[in-house]
């Protein structure tokens, strides 16, 4: 899997100074998906005191906020690990969800990859029955910030992601998919999973079904 073991993940965050009392603000450059990936990983190990900086470093800099090039270190922290095993899933869970009307599988990649026009990951296409909410559609390309909540809600509704009991999100390697998971959570859904290996695994396994068009 793309994901390291829980102990390794927790140790990495602890080395950055995070402990059970911390409040963590996550940001990234060029794509908000790196911040949401860390946010989802923290939730996976049972840590909930984290937020994503809307707009990332680019928006922070564009707004004229202070920046520094000096190193910043914190004393090591100690995290209590309480794994939520359902937050990351593998191909068997995704395969089992095909045809299950209680589940909604969402592809976070661009429409060209979703349709099969762009065979970026080998075999063209998508997980059968999945719908498309491109990660890029949730972000304003000028401000780099997320679009307003009501617009994002409409995008999910238009794609058909509203009534499921369970949501599974995927992309190329479990990164963009966390943006979709992040917003499903913000919109009030709580049974959400990220397919960690996503199309990097699915498209390269000839035994797994693909759908195009």
Automatic annotation (TrEMBL):
Residues that span the membrane, as ranges: 167-185
Domain of life: Bacteria
InterPro entries: Rhodanese-like_dom, Rhodanese-like_dom_sf, TST/MPST-like
PROSITE patterns xref list: RHODANESE_3
Name of a matching Pfam family: Rhodanese
SUPFAM superfamilies for this protein: Rhodanese/Cell cycle control phosphatase (SSF52821)
Xref: CDD domains: TST_Repeat_2
Keyword entries, A-Z: Membrane, Repeat, Transferase, Transmembrane, Transmembrane helix
Domain Rhodanese per the UniProt entry, residue ranges: 5-69, 112-211
GO molecular function: thiosulfate-cyanide sulfurtransferase activity
Protein name (Swiss-Prot/TrEMBL): Rhodanese domain-containing protein
Protein source organism: Ruegeria marisrubri
Organism lineage string: Bacteria, Pseudomonadati, Pseudomonadota, Alphaproteobacteria, Rhodobacterales
């Amino acid at each position: 899997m793309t994901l390291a073991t829980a102990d390794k993940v927790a140790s990495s965050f602890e080395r950055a100074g995070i402990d059970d009392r911390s409040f963590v603000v996550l940001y990234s450059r060029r794509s908000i998906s790196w911040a949401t990936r860390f946010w989802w990983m923290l939730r996976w190990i049972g840590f909930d005191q984290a937020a994503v900086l809307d707009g990332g470093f680019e928006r922070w800099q564009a707004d004229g906020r202070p920046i520094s090039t000096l190193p910043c270190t914190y004393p090591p922290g100690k995290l209590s690990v309480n794994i939520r095993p359902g937050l990351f899933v593998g191909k068997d869970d995704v395969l089992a969800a095909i045809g299950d009307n209680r589940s909604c599988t969402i592809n976070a990649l661009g429409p060209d990859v979703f349709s099969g026009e762009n065979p970026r990951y080998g075999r063209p296409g998508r997980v059968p029955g999945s719908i498309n909410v491109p990660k890029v559609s949730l972000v304003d390309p000028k401000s780099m910030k997320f679009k307003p909540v009501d617009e994002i809600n409409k995008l999910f509704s238009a794609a058909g992601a509203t009534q499921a009991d369970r949501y599974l999100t995927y992309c190329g390697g479990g990164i963009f998919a966390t943006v979709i998971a992040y917003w499903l959570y913000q919109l009030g859904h709580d049974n959400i999973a990220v397919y960690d290996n996503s199309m990097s695994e699915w498209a390269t396994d000839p035994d797994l079904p693909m759908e195009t068009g």
